[in-house]
Amino acid sequence: MKLQVAIDRVDMQRAQRLIHEVEHDADLIEIGTSLTKEFGLVELQRLKSQAPLLGDIKTCDEGAYEFKLGFASGFQYLTVMGSSSMGTLETCAKITAEQHGGMMIDLLECDDARISRISGFSEAIYCLHMSKDSGSMDDPVGQIRSFRQRFPQIAHIAIAGGIKQHQLQAISKEGIDIVIMGSAITGADDIQQTCHQCKGEIQ
């Protein structure tokens, strides 16, 4: 299981410092939606990281334009909303394959019927996501197990939504691809040490 650290709601200088703090232990570093909206993908090219960067652009339309721009801006992974049209999802998958990148489908507010309909993207990572406004995910292991039972055809899974360090060992036993953590790491007193400890929990 990979550790993805999300960076959100900071300025560019702080974002670069946070990257420096976590890049040796994080498998992926997410440049959050707040940064993509405030600064734009072209400006975010200034950020440098030893770890792969994911741009949480939450594409819901204009898939070709946004994914081409995202990959051209130096991101190795990009996100698209599961609520997008099938045409948008197919376009994003096509561009991702052409660019040898990674596509994460954000399942925020997608019901089971919708997830079933869009479950055929075999290379995509499907992200179980509790929104910031809705609070933390209380039982991530239960959510993962329930999701696998309902959608055994989906091979690649990530989970996000207020994940805490004490939950990592249990999550790591569920065989998912990525666990995403934000302020539990970036808001810690010692960010580098906390990230290192979190990485140790999943090895």
TrEMBL record:
Q: Which UniProt keywords apply?
A: Lyase
Renumbered to this chain, the signal peptide range is none
Q: Name one GO biological process term.
A: 'de novo' pyrimidine nucleobase biosynthetic process
> Does Lyase appear among the keywords?
yes
Q: InterPro entries, from UniProt?
A: Aldolase_TIM (IPR013785), OMPdeCOase_dom (IPR001754), RibuloseP-bd_barrel (IPR011060)
Highest taxon of the lineage: Bacteria
Ranges for domain Orotidine 5'-phosphate decarboxylase come to: 2-198
Q: Which PANTHER family match?
A: 3-KETO-L-GULONATE-6-PHOSPHATE DECARBOXYLASE SGBH-RELATED (PTHR35039:SF3)
Record-given protein name: 3-hexulose-6-phosphate synthase
Q: List the source organism.
A: Bifidobacterium tibiigranuli
